[in-house]
Design brief:
- The two termini are 37 Å apart.
- The protein has 339 residues and is of the alpha/beta class.
- The chain is globular and about 65 Å long.
- Strands 3-2-1-4-5 form a 5-stranded mixed sheet, sandwiched between helices. A 5-stranded mixed sheet has the order 8-7-6-9-10, sandwiched between helices.
- The longest helix is centred in the last third of the chain and has 27 residues.
- Strand 9, helix 9 and strand 10 form a beta-alpha-beta unit.
- Bound molecules: 5'-O-[(R)-(carboxyoxy)(hydroxy)phosphoryl]adenosine (KG4) and zinc ion.
- The site of 5'-O-[(R)-(carboxyoxy)(hydroxy)phosphoryl]adenosine has 19 residues, from helix 5 and helix 6.
């Protein structure tokens, strides 16, 4: 018998609902982005975001069911992001999920947002071989996990300051590129020479699998200020963007490859919004191939926030019988995994 799960994601600035069958078949994947709404503020305004989720959540769920050509009674479970994220935003999705679960008397499944990102890879390849070495790079996280079986996440390293996506957004802002920074910076970098500007890379010691991007961000700011003092911009925006993108990519790829050497995974998986970055994807694939390792990366639409990934992660929790009580609460800074 097949299992049809409704996924709901409202942790940040996308109101999303999806229907996924048996953890891999995407019957619907609806994403209402609030990007235009927040663009004039230069970033996500939490209170504005939660109000927008409130307006969007019911129509988005209705649209997902319509696209999947099913009704509420065809659902076997509802999976929802329970954290981490913006508290007021998470609550909107959780309340919708609880209501549906209670009204239909079907299981409620709480999903960790990063677990969702990771599971986007199971929508690409259902039988990914374990163990997986997973790099999750988003606006709020830069985490490296070793996953030896479903639901078991060993944290190998994480950022000590800025997340990779956060660094992209901040540098895009100082370069005057606008919001959201990641995709705009990638576009600006296309015409640039990544070697034109020397920017620092933080490795934090030989064995460390942790990351740090705040020094790089500061280096870009300092560089720009110095040029201004010297009488105007000499370096092109494209060169600076390309140099920054390469510096981030070099560190991410070097750390993943050094972890791969240590832990000998069967596959490398990339996930999270920054995984939509073509330069990073190609660089990691290239370096991994040299070591005879394959990399799985979701298509960009499944890298950034969506609910199909939540429904997929929810499916594996459902199989393990990990149902949440209707008293489930959201946790803004929910951790994932173990040391
Ligand atoms: O996973 P996500 O959609 O939301 C969070 O969970 O944070 O990630 C959003 C982050 C933002 O920082 C955005 O700038 C970054 O992912 N991002 C990118 C690209 N597309 C999105 N960064 C670099 N290159 C991209 N193409
Ligand atoms: Zn995310």
């Amino acid at each position: 018998m097949s299992v049809t799960i409704l996924g709901i994601e409202t942790s940040c600035d996308e109101t999303a609902a999806a229907v996924v069958t048996d953890g891999w078949r995407i019957d619907a994947n609806v994403i209402a982005s609030q990007v235009d709404l927040h663009a004039r503020f230069g970033g996500v305004v939490p209170e504005v975001a939660s109000r927008q989720h409130l307006e969007g959540i019911n129509p988005v769920i209705a649209e997902a069911l319509a696209q999947a050509r099913i009704g509420f009674t065809d659902l076997d479970a509802v999976a929802v992001t329970m954290g981490p994220g913006l508290a007021g935003c998470l609550l909107v999705g959780l309340m919708a999920a609880k209501t549906i679960a209670m009204a239909l008397d079907i299981p409620l499944v709480g999903v960790h947002h990063l677990e969702g990102h990771l599971y986007a890879n199971f929508l690409v390849e259902r039988d990914l071989p374990f163990s997986l070495l997973a790099l999750i790079v988003s606006g709020g996280h830069t985490d490296l996990f070793l996953v030896e079986r479903h639901g078991d996440y060993r944290l190998l390293g994480r950022t000590r300051d800025d997340a990779a996506g956060e660094a992209f957004d901040k540098v895009a802002r100082v370069l005057g590129l606008g919001y959201p920074g990641g995709p705009l910076l990638e576009k600006a970098a296309q015409e640039g020479d990544p070697e034109a500007v020397a920017l620092p890379r933080a490795y934090l010691g030989e064995d460390s699998l942790d990351f740090s991007f705040s020094g790089l961000k500061t280096a870009v700011v300092t560089y720009l200020e110095k040029e201004k003092r010297a009488g105007g911009a000499v370096t092109s925006l494209a060169d600076l963007a390309a140099g920054f993108q390469k510096a981030v990519t070099d560190v991410l790829v070097d750390k993943v490859m050094s972890a791969a050497e240590r832990f000998q995974p069967a596959r490398i998986v990339l996930a999270g919004g920054v995984a939509a970055n073509g330069f990073l994807r190609r660089a990691l694939e290239h370096r991994a191939a040299e070591q005879g390792l394959a990399v799985t990366v979701p298509p960009p639409i499944l890298c950034t926030d969506n609910a199909a990934m939540v429904a997929c992660a929810g499916y594996y929790r459902y199989l393990r019988g990990e149902f949440a009580p209707l008293t489930l609460n959201t946790t803004a800074n929910l951790p994932l995994g173990h040391a």
